[in-house]
């Protein structure tokens, strides 16, 4: 009974697909953002799993990638949430089904 | 380096007794994971017992000491000299009816006190109480402290949101704003300390201070000041408890909590205080070492004495200083402390590089750094405050001109002789 | 990795992570969904620790659970009260099919490929090596990331600033 690379990759795949469903199917803008963050997490998990198990001259490059992904995800979350607040101010709703036209 | 295990009755390091117990368990032929789990359990139980007893003791100590500072006797009715006051407080909180407000979010309302309590307890897992008395000497100990401290913001938000009370939500927002601002300063100051020592492991930092025979308090006074202030804000204690003080916002994010739920918040506040004091003692004041005294006096006694001393300073500041307004606090963090913390990181990094490159011995480098840092700290604080416009007001109070400012004292030109 | 502790930890933590991710999908209230998301972040941090990635785990807790979650909660507070339900849009069935397809594809690729597994026993200490790599080999992305963070910060402030009324020259 051992835990290998495949186990982590499957967990990452499941998390990624749940995040994809959230990003595509949620009506609330913040729900979509939660899906995107979950996808980032799944990708990070796969990077770290690869860096731990796979033969490589610099194994810790995977961790460096993860640090960059976390940084960019934080910046993106801040900007996206500022956009959400602005969207509420302009369109009076954050329901993505109702924000489907460029002009009124 | 860690010395080998001494005899089990060598109380200077309780880790000796635990080590002997674990060896005994291994000799009895238990599987490999049993000593590991047993040592973890012993550590957890020890931390739980110690924190609860310390909080009980300090409820009494704080109220008496603050009372004496404010020229009144503290609690002295319950038991001899009021010593049973904490017990009375605990019993009162246990027997009060835990009211859940009507339209609140029941799950979050119930969960918030627990989530507030847990991070303050988990912090003690990485702090070395003695040479072998660390529950988990992580390689990233300092970063762990900061990360666990940042979970407090979620708990505060959950408490404020689920109360369905606009003052609670407002208090929670203010507390979160305060917490994240001072968390940034905390990170920068701890970064300077880690940069100088060269390791994020708390056991290594204490060993560094023991090897070089100097405490980081002498080498980084600006850092210590920044961390003391940032820690005071993280603790939500006076003089920075604007978000939860009764005269400000009706107890802020824990307005709607009563009974044992409030007991959790109350205890979490004290535990946060102990955690910050423990981090200050470990990082800046040498942890469980005292320049060689730990050969005779047990290390954990020295640690506890230092911890209670630092916590006493916080109690002292509570009894003495007036409360700050929220905009004064935020302005102080972003405009005053943040530039100083950044300059501190630069200076400490430069000194470390100088020490390595110029290959100075520690005997001549460290006193030089200490003096330079101290002068720089004093100069920066005074100079930056002067640049920001906080000049000394003219301290001579003048009589008010009765027609214009009734009952006022104004600083400025002297009142004409009426 | 075949010692009992790591195996048990992996299964418990991945059950917690996947379970709370499913909780984000299912729950009816947006704030509860964010709390489940926080639990999922913690689970992923635990999985990093089983992979002996200590620095990344603590960074994950610090940034995701401590900062991004607070951002999400603040955005919920600043957006309308009526739209705090966590309902699905009309595209839910195609999205579900797509998500299942992606999951099966990734899972199949993960199991079927011949990965070149090394004999490493786990990392000793990752923070110093990551630090050296960040300032040695990856210094350009490091600097660009700091500029990116500055841009995001300024952008967020400018976007959310309240509109000041234009002053008309009175006289």
Account of the 3D structure:
Helix content of chain A is 74%, strand content 0%. Chain A has 104 residues and is mainly α. Chain A has a single domain (5-91), classed as Helix Hairpins (Orthogonal Bundle), CATH 1.10.287. The model of chain A has no long low-confidence stretch (mean pLDDT 91). Chain B has a domain at 96-348. Chain B is mainly α and 418 residues long. In chain B, α12 crosses α13 and α14 (326-357) runs antiparallel to α15. The longest helix of chain B is centred in the first third of the chain and has 37 residues, at 33-69. Chain B contains 15 helices and no strands. By secondary structure, chain C is mainly α. Chain C folds into two domains: 1-99, NADH-ubiquinone/plastoquinone oxidoreductase chain 6, subunit NuoJ (Four Helix Bundle (Hemerythrin (Met), subunit A), Up-down Bundle); 124-162. Chain C starts with a helix and ends in an 11-residue tail after the last helix. At the A-C interface, α1, α2 and α3 of A face α1, α2, α3, α4 and α5 of C.
Summarize the amount of helix of chain A as a percent range: over 70%
The CATH class of the largest domain in chain C: Mainly Alpha
Radius of gyration of chain C: 22 Å
Q: Separation of termini of chain C?
A: 80 Å
- Number of E-type strands of chain C: 0
Let me know the largest β-sheet of chain A.
none
Task: Tell me the number of structural domains of chain A.
Answer: 1
Q: Spans of chain A of 5+ residues with little confidence (pLDDT < 50)?
A: none
- The overall pLDDT of chain A, averaged over residues, is 91
Overall shape of chain A: elongated
Structural classification of chain C:
mainly alpha
Descriptors:
heterotrimer; A: 104 residues; Helix Hairpins; 3 helices; elongated; C: mainly alpha; Four Helix Bundle (Hemerythrin (Met), subunit A); 71% helix; globular
What layout of secondary structure does this protein have?
The complex is a heterotrimer of chains A (104), B (418) and C (171).
Chain A lengths: L4 H21 L3 H25 L7 H31 L13
Chain B lengths: L13 H14 L5 H37 L15 H11 L10 H17 L18 H9 L2 H11 L3 H32 L4 H11 L3 H4 L1 H14 L11 H4 L9 H26 L14 H22 L5 H32 L4 H27 L30
Chain C lengths: L3 H23 L3 H21 L3 H24 L14 H21 L13 H11 L2 H22 L11
Helix pairs in contact in C: 1-2, 2-3
């Amino acid at each position: 009974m051992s835990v290998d690379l495949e186990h982590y990759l499957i967990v990452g795949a499941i998390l990624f697909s749940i995040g994809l469903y959230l990003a595509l199917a949620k009506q609330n803008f913040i729900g979509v953002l939660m899906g995107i963050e979950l996808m980032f997490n799944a990708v990070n998990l796969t990077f770290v799993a690869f860096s731990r198990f796979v033969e490589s001259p610099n194994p810790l490059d995977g961790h460096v990638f993860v640090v960059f992904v976390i940084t960019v995800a934080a910046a993106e979350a801040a900007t996206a949430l500022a956009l959400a607040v602005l969207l509420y101010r302009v369109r009076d709703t954050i329901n993505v089904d109702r924000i489907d036209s460029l002009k009124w | 380096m860690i010395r080998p295990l001494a005899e089990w009755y060598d109380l200077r390091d309780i880790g000796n007794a635990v080590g002997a117990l674990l060896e005994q368990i291994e000799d009895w032929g238990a599987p490999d994971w049993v000593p590991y789990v047993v040592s973890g359990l012993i550590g957890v139980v020890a931390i739980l017992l110690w924190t609860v007893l310390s909080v009980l003791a300090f409820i009494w100590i704080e109220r008496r000491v603050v009372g004496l500072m404010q020229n009144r006797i503290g609690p002295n009715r319950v038991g001899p000299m009021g010593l049973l006051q904490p017990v009375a407080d605990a019993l009162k909180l246990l027997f009060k009816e835990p009211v859940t407000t009507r339209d609140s979010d029941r799950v979050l309302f119930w969960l918030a006190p627990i989530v507030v309590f847990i991070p303050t307890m988990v912090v003690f897992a990485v702090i070395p109480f003695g040479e072998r008395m660390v529950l988990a000497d992580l390689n990233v100990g300092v970063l762990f402290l900061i990360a666990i401290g940042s979970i407090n913001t979620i708990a505060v938000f959950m408490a404020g949101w689920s109360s369905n009370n606009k003052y609670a939500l407002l208090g929670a927002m203010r507390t979160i704003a305060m917490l994240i601002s001072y968390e940034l300063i905390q990170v920068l100051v701890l970064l300077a300390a880690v940069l100088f020592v060269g390791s994020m492991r708390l056991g290594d930092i204490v060993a560094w201070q023991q090897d070089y025979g100097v405490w980081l308090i002498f080498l980084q006074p600006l850092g210590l000041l920044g961390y003391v202030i940032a820690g005071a804000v993280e603790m939500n204690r006076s003089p920075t408890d604007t978000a939860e003080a009764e005269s400000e916002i009706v107890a802020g994010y824990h307005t709607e909590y009563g009974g044992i739920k409030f007991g959790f918040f109350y205890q979490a506040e004290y535990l946060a205080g102990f955690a910050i004091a423990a981090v200050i003692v470990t990082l800046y004041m040498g942890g469980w070492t005292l320049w060689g005294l730990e050969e005779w006096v047990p290390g954990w006694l020295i640690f506890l004495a230092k911890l209670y001393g630092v916590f006493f300073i916080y109690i002292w500041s509570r009894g003495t200083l007036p409360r700050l307004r929220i905009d004064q606090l935020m302005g102080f963090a972003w405009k005053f402390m943040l530039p100083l913390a950044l300059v501190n990181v630069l200076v400490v990094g430069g000194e470390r590089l100088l020490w390595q490159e110029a290959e100075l011995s520690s005997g001549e480098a460290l006193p030089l750094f200490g003096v330079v840092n101290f002068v720089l700290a004093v100069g920066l604080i005074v100079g930056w405050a002067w640049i920001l416009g906080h000049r000394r007001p003219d301290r001579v109070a003048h009589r008010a001109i009765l027609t214009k400012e009734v009952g006022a004292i104004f600083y400025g030109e002297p009142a004409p002789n009426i | 990795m075949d010692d009992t502790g790591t195996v048990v930890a992996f299964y418990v933590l991945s059950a917690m992570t996947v379970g709370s991710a499913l909780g984000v999908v299912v729950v009816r209230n947006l704030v509860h969904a964010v709390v489940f998301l926080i639990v999922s972040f913690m689970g992923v941090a635990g999985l990093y620790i089983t992979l002996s990635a200590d620095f990344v785990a603590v960074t994950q807790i610090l940034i995701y659970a401590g900062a991004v979650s607070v951002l999400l909660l603040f955005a919920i507070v600043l957006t309308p009260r009526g739209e705090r339900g966590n309902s699905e849009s009309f595209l839910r069935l195609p999205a579900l099919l797509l998500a299942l397809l992606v999951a099966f594809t990734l899972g199949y690729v993960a199991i079927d490929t011949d990965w070149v597994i090394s004999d490493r026993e786990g990392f000793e200490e990752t923070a110093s090596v990551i630090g050296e790599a960040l300032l040695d080999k990856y210094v350009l992305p490091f600097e660009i990331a700091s500029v990116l963070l500055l841009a995001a910060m300024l952008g967020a402030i400018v976007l959310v600033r309240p509109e000041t009324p234009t002053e008309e020259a009175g006289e």
